[in-house]
Amino acid sequence: MSHDIVIADKPKDECGVFGIWGPGENVSRLTYFGLHALQHRGQESAGIAVTDGKQINVHKGMGLVMEVFNDTILNNLNGSAAVGHVRYSPTGSNSLINAQPLVFRCRRGSAAFAHNGNLVNAAQMEEQLAEMGVLFQSTSDTEIFANLVARYGEEGIVDAVTKAVSHIRGAYSIVMMTQNKLIGIRDPYGVRPLCLGRLNEAYVLASETCALGIVGAKFVRFIEPGEMVVINSSGLESFKIGQEERQGMCIFEYVYLARPDSTLDAGNVAQIRMECGRQLARETDVEADMVIPVPDSGNSAALGYSQAKGIPFMSGLIKNRYVGRTFIQPSQKMRDLGVKLKLHPVREILQGQRVILVDDSIVRGTTSKKIVQLVRDAGAREVHMMVSSPPIQNSCYYGIDTGKREELIAGRIGVDDICRHIGADSLHYLSVPGLIQAVGLPEKKMCTGCFTGDYPAGIPEKEDEDKNMFEEGW
């Protein structure tokens, strides 16, 4: 799990993928920098696989990108194409065996796989593959996809991937690499983001556009839902591998997961978060002296709220950026100090003031309660909590660790009770229609499952469901 103290009450970021086809470029170092830009999407492990056209070499380890790689390691990863991955484990245990890219060898050569998302039929698929003699080395559902591709490998990579995805269901943005091809795949619902860029003559694939910018690549377009792009020495080809009338880009990417400087299908993330704040201001009517964000994820929404209401925006909470994943908490008392170590209130700003406190979400309520108390202890006269997303009432099955429904405070109690629990004078959430309006995409093109329970790609099947997806051709 992530070791960041303050965001223990936030949904855990899922994973980030990066790939580059760039003969003549230093692909391992470019991938290293691309993964740095995607570090917010996963802090448990990092890995890079490189092909020189003959074989695939991989290095991966537990920890942050800068902890896993150094100059010596990168100098030994030479080739014409690379795939990289940063990971938080929504499924599978936190261990090196699950670190990606996963590299497999089969009859036609080797392939490396980096996956962002989660398969809702993973348990059934694994059981059926195991009955056919497949041995699994990890607990990651990425291995399921890799085995399916390998089974159809004799038919060529395009047909193999097309047939493999016909058996899986859920969320997947995948960057994979054979010895002589780089491939990007986005599921038919488009749940997780994937974009394409150009760097001189090189092609770049990444979860977010912020990773393109850091390596100097220019954004070309987003990979479409149900699209596969195949890149090799002949250039880029696009294939349609699936299509769903209902799409489902994860709306929580806009709320919290993506970096503010990234652009997703609906537009720039920071601008959309500001609009969430403005929309929240339109939906609420609270008298206050100042608006302060819970940094950093509440910054943009708080600024939008401030602008819409004409209430001054102030930095009343200062984030200590040097307390994080390596801090040891030896006792319960020290664990209780976690928020104070990460956030410090400015008493001179807060003393005697009526404060609007803006955050992007509340999951369990534990951190929000501590932050409200911090602001009160600094002398605030009133603390009104504004949340720039609706109540998270349901689990995510598509690659974000929100926790189980019974762990979600909004899944158990109503807004008034949450307000009392966190100790605020009032609590206001952005409505679902307000969030959809702020994002600017039609509701049928987004997944709002964690807020509404409406999951475009379905939810995991029950273990006793008698469904075999391999009736023919095996």
Concise summary:
The protein is of the alpha+beta class.
Task: Give the arrangement of secondary structure elements.
Blueprint: E1 15-21, H1 27-37, E2 45-51, E3 56-62, H2 65-68, H3 71-75, E4 81-87, E5 102-106, E6 109-119, H4 122-131, H5 142-151, H6 157-165, E7 170-178, E8 182-186, E9 195-199, E10 202-206, H7 209-214, E11 218-222, E12 227-232, E13 235-240, E14 249-250, H8 252-257, E15 263-264, E16 267-268, H9 269-283, E17 290-293, H10 299-309, E18 317-319, H11 332-336, H12 338-342, E19 343-345, H13 347-350, E20 354-359, H14 366-377, E21 382-387, H15 409-412, H16 415-422, E22 426-429, H17 432-439, E23 446-447, H18 449-452
Parallel strand pairs: 14-23, 17-20, 20-21, 21-22
Antiparallel strand pairs: 1-4, 1-10, 2-3, 2-4, 5-6, 6-7, 7-8, 8-12, 9-10, 9-11, 12-13, 15-16, 18-19
Helix pairs in contact: 5-6, 9-10, 9-17
CATH topology of the largest domain: Glutamine Phosphoribosylpyrophosphate, subunit 1, domain 1
- Structural Rg: 23 Å
What is the number of E strands?
23
Structure classification: alpha+beta
Global mean pLDDT? 90
Instruction: State the CATH superfamily name of the largest domain.
Output: Aminohydrolase, N-terminal nucleophile (Ntn) domain
Largest sheet: 7 strands, antiparallel
The number of helical segments is 18
CATH C-level class of the largest domain: Alpha Beta
Anisotropy-based shape:
globular
What percent of residues adopt helix (DSSP H or I)?
Answer: 25-40%
Strand content: 25-35%
Oligomer: single chain
